[in-house]
Each structure stands twice: as C-alpha cells, then as structure tokens.
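Have a think about this chain, tokens included, and walk me through the fold.
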Amino acid sequence: MPDWITTTVTAELLRGALDVEHTEHGLLPHRLPPRARAQNTDDQLAMAESQPAGVRLAFRTRATALELDTLPTKRAYVGAPPRPNGVYDLVVDGRQAGQGSVLGGNVITVDMTTGTSEVRPGSPGTVRFDGLSGEVKDVEIWLPHNETTELIALRTDAPVEPAPRGERPVWLHHGSSISHGSDAASPTGVWPAVAAALGGVELINLGLAGSALLDPFTARAVRDTAADLISVKIGINIVNHDVMRLRAFGPAVHGFLDTIREGHPDTPLLVVSPILCPIHEDTPGPCFPDIGELGEGRLRFRTLGDPAERASGKLTLQVIREELARIVKQRAADDPNLHYLDGRELYGENDSAELPLPDDLHPDATTHRLMGERFAGLAFGADGVFGTD
C-alpha cells in the first residue's frame, strides 16, 4: 500500500466554483454564491447549482497514486431507466488520463408525474487513480457534472500544492441543462468543457439545468464574478417552462444584460440563442415527460403548447431567436463588445437528421462534443468574437 498523505480539500484546490459550503462530511462546491442561493426558492435550481459541472480539483504533485473520498448525491426517476453513476475525469498536464466513479451515496428519487421526491441517505465512497508518472505534473480531477458531490479527503503518495493559476483567460458561460451537461458522457465531455479545452481558456460553467430563466440573482452572480470572456445561452428553458410572454421577455433580456454590464462594462459578451429543438421550434411550452413513454421505460419529452398561441405572445424558439438577434443588434450600436450567435450553428437541421435528440430535448454525448468543437471554432478561433489565437 502507498504511504498516503491526506490533504483536506479546501477552496484553494478548486476551480470553477463560486462558493464552498462546509458540511458535516466535508466541502460542498456551489456554482451560485450565497446571496443567490438565499433568494432562490426552487428545488430544481438548488439541485442544479450544487451539481459541480465544470468544477475540478487542480493541484501540482509528483504523486503516482491518488484517492478522493466523496459523498455523492445521485438522482433516480420513477419509471425511467436507471441513470449511470457519475464520472470523475482525471486530467494530467491537460490530457485525459483516467476515469472513475464513486458507488453508493445518497439517492434522490423523483416522480416526474407528481413533482414529488424522496431521499435515501447513503455512505461515502472513494475514486482511485494510480500508475501515474513520478514527475512533477499538473493534475485536475473533474467532478461529476450531474451529481452533487461533497468532498471529504484527498490522499496521495506525494505532497500536493494548489496548481498555479496561470495566464489563460477565464471564460464564464451561463445556460440551461444542455450547457450543464444533460446527457454528456463525462464532465470533460460537456460541450463548454470541450470548447474550453480547445480554446485554451479556464472555464466557469454556470449551466443550470432547467434554470436558465433570466433570474436577476443569476445575472448578479455573473456580474460579480471575475471573467475575461462571458457567454449567455438563452431561450430553451424560457419556452419549455412557459414562464413569460414576448412582452416580458424583451425587457427581461435587457435587464439581464444591463446587470452583467454593471460589473463587466467592456468584457466580450456573447449572446447565444437556442440550438435546434424540433418540438419547440414553432410550438410553445410547457413541456413535460411523456407518461406513456415512461411506462415503457423510456424518457421522452412532449410539449403541451399550441402553435396558435403564438398570436397571444407565447414564446417559441423561432420567436426567441428573432428577439435576441434584434436586442443584440440594437444594443451593439453602443456596445461594440456585445455579439450574437445563432445556436443552430452549433446544432441545426442537418445535425438533427443525423444525430436526433434522444429524448427530443437534450443532445447525446456525441452531439456535445460536436457542439463544443463548433463553438471553439466560432468563438475562440482567430476570427471568433473570443479570438485567443
């Protein structure tokens, strides 16, 4: 057995979290700050922001073996297929070097037909990586993007120190479950993580599943977070939750952007509209799981809206894109660092034919990588709005 050195996990070892909470088990990373969490009353958002999409431990060491003790909180859905265990990605000197999972943990079982849930407490577990070189190296452990993860202890067979921050630009991205990770295979496979690796930037991922709803406290979180590049992907949750009409949407977007600009007046800011989602292109929400499909053990989503309701101001993705393009064009006259990207450039009609959304709402792992590669080219390339070459 290795001669282990135990290191208490602290905020200094983390990247991508906006706050940490000390729990009875250890350290819980948060992706929204305390003030935002205090103003939130939605269980979905509380769960989403505590799931560490884009959060990773980052340290320098000569260790050849390491273990991380955590207490995960997993999700299960009544009637739906079991979800796979969350994946921890090991990255050494910028390259993927291993994967693992922590079994057990707490389980939240959600009944999507009634909106109720129950919690079954569980025990901590350990993910282990070994066979690493004994050279000095920068190590990252990317936490599962879809499991709330309390960090208990890090054990290594050589001392560790926080990785140097370096000079790479910090990119803060906000979006929906698609940005959060939806059905990506692992945390480094989520499309913003793919794009960040290709673009040579440090990622802060504020993708919040089911919760990209133009909440003012989220805008303030973006405003108050140091970043060199910012993108906000707006639209799909507005439609599938059916939370506002066109009359309210435009002013809400302006207010969201105004708040970001209070803290980042000149930072390159990219507004991204929704990717193609056929069930909502011309049909408003709300959107719910298909009960019949659940009964067959499949998860599919269906909209309950009616295309005729657009006349009364209900929103569709087509309407959202038109309004976002209009708003950005209007504001860009006085804000040359504000830009717009049509989300269909990341995933459009041709892609839908070849790589359909498996549940009619979320992209699969292959599509995440495709979207990340395309965003990197469009945003971080020499001619991109975030050009870092």
